[in-house]
Amino acid sequence: MPATSEDIAEAARVLGRGGLVAFPTETVYGLGADAADAAAVARVFQVKGRPASHPLIVHLAGTDQLSDWAGDVPDVARRLAERFWPGPLTLVLRRGSRVALEATGGLQTVAVRVPAHPVALALLAAFGGGVAAPSANRFGSVSPTTAEHVRTELGDGVDVVLDGGRCEVGVESTIVDVTGDVPAVLRPGGVTREDLEAHLGHALAVPSTSRVRVPGQHPSHYAPRARVVLVPAEDVIAEAEVARQRGHRVGVLVPPSAAGVAVKAHAQIAVPASTAAYARGLYEYLREFDRQGCDLIVASTPADEGLGLAIANRLRRAAGPRPAE
Ligand code: AMP
Ligand code: MG
User: Fold this and answer.
1) Which structural domains are found in the chain, ordered by start?
2) Fewer CB within 10 Å, N side or C side of the chain?
3) pTM, to two decimals
């Protein structure tokens, strides 16, 4: 059932009492708490099983609230906010005093964004403050893109789950650090690097290892239960066949270039040719392979351009080394 205005008003009251509210955004579902309430923020970390040093994104109803939560808003931040908010862009700024230190993982910077989803915006407007929210999943696993994903994974850990349908973008926001001389992309996401650079009129820095800690940069993040193996697109079908012969229950993300090629596998999903459609479906595909009991997923990464960059980044993280089992 889609959230009603009464559900949203009640959820805002729950936030005000220090409760946790899962809510839809255009990227993925977030697990929100009052960003000024240290105890509420601590519960977010506990429910997610997330290490306390990994900072959260503070969600705001509008750009006019920026100066309440950030210590200093450079001109480049205003230009990016004007063009891309509401939208899947997160800005890292110097921390303002209102945000609980717990929400920034102890850092002197704060990540902020205005999400482009009517339910999220109504919740933020009704609440009035900042809502610190990471993705509403257990730490390290696949982000939720429906309310059902959140209920299945977090259950009673959340006080309210607002249903806003399936997320339009499907991968997380692009994170841009604007505290340095040149804005730096810390995580590729729903706003493409090409669009950011076209708007600013200059190239962005893309640090390989950022000064700040970005959880999405750790090995094995965004990961399904099944292991993920990445190979070049032309090798996906052969790799899947070899794995099947070795006794694996293989799920195949069939790249557009191999569409229609017969593949013997436990499960297969044809990757859409449009990267926007691929991003929208990516996490659901990974969940579907888990539901079907696959133990191995064979896939290839799209080209590192446009939204393909964010998809490739998530697939590489999903394929990253797992903790010793
Ligand atoms: P999630 O990973 O989905 O839980 O969303 C939170 C994201 O925001 C993580 O990738 C964080 O690293 C990032 N983030 C939050 N605050 C900061 C910060 N101060 N500096 C850099 N990244 C941040
Ligand atoms: Mg996450």
Assistant:
1) 5-200 (3.90.870.10), 227-318 (3.40.50.11030)
2) C
3) 0.95
